[in-house]
């Protein structure tokens, strides 16, 4: 996906009705020794980092339970859409654990430090409506009879992104992600570097031409 230039947006959805991702298999985990557990969790953390580093926008379609590592997967995405009936939570402390695949870092950056601490310390589960109210998800929708309301809303959101200039969107994502980790002056420098890379693109010229000619732009990602 990272190197396929035809890929413009990635949507993560589940094929299991009622469950986005239920997290680690604790029965499997119970058969591992301490070293194996550490290696397993490191691989999970690396996977989430790879998802977060995808150059194109990513959307998690949460149509059911997103618990533990399942919510960490959703947090690794750029955008999240949930059914109102979905259940989300970093429940690790209820099993004698703590989030180990990015949850302690990505949840505070998403909802703020105080609320993230409360949710992690208590292991509380919240539904889609509550998740929207605290900014954990971008949109919440009533579940439909097919059980894929969040996926359908995610597709609608993806279709809003698709017409936009692909390279500009990628640079926008890079500027936001890198800029959020530094002070604002450094962030401005990062934005400037990303903008400079966008200036010589054909898509920028096409955008300007389309504006002058009062027509929709035809972006190619070049």
Describe this structure in words.
The structure is a single chain. The chain has 222 residues and is an alpha/beta fold. The chain has two domains: 10-161, 2-enoyl-CoA Hydratase, Chain A, domain 1; 166-213, Lyase 2-enoyl-coa Hydratase, Chain  A, domain 2 (Orthogonal Bundle). Helix content is 50%, strand content 12%. The protein contains ten helices and eight strands. The chain has helices spanning 26-30, 34-52, 69-76, 103-111, 113-122, 128-133, 149-161, 166-179, 184-198, 202-213, and strands at 10-12, 19-21, 58-62, 65-67, 79-83, 87-89, 126-127, 139-141. It has a four-stranded parallel β-sheet, sandwiched between helices. The protein has a four-stranded mixed β-sheet with strand order 2-4-6-7. Helix 3 (69-76) crosses helix 4 and helix 4 (103-111) packs across helix 5 (113-122). The two termini are 18 Å apart. The model has no long low-confidence stretch (mean pLDDT 94). InterPro entries: ClpP/crotonase-like_dom_sf (IPR029045), Enoyl-CoA_hyd/isom_CS (IPR018376), Enoyl-CoA_hydra/iso (IPR001753), Enoyl-CoA_hydra_C (IPR014748). It comes from Phaethon lepturus.
């Amino acid at each position: 996906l990272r190197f396929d230039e035809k890929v413009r947006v990635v949507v993560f959805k589940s094929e299991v009705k009622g469950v986005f991702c239920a997290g680690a298999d604790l029965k499997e985990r119970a058969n591992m020794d301490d070293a194996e557990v550490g290696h397993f969790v490191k691989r999970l953390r690396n996977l989430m980092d790879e998802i977060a580093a995808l150059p194109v926008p990513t959307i998690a379609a949460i149509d059911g339970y997103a618990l533990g590592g399942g919510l960490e997967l959703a947090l690794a995405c750029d955008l999240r859409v949930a059914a109102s009936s979905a259940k989300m939570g970093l429940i690790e402390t209820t099993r004698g654990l703590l989030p180990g695949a990015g949850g302690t870092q990505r949840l505070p950056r998403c909802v703020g430090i105080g609320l993230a601490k409360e949710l992690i310390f208590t292991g509380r589960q919240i539904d889609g409506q509550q998740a929207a109210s605290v900014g954990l998800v971008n949109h919440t929708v009533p579940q439909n009879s097919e059980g894929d309301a969040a996926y359908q809303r995610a597709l609608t959101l993806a279709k809003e992104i698709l017409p936009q200039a692909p390279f500009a969107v990628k640079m926008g994502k890079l500027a936001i992600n890198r800029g959020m980790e530094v002070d604002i002056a450094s962030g401005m420098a990062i934005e400037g570097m990303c903008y400079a890379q966008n200036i010589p693109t054909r898509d920028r010229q096409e955008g300007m031409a389309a504006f002058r000619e009062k027509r929709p732009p035809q972006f190619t990602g070049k």
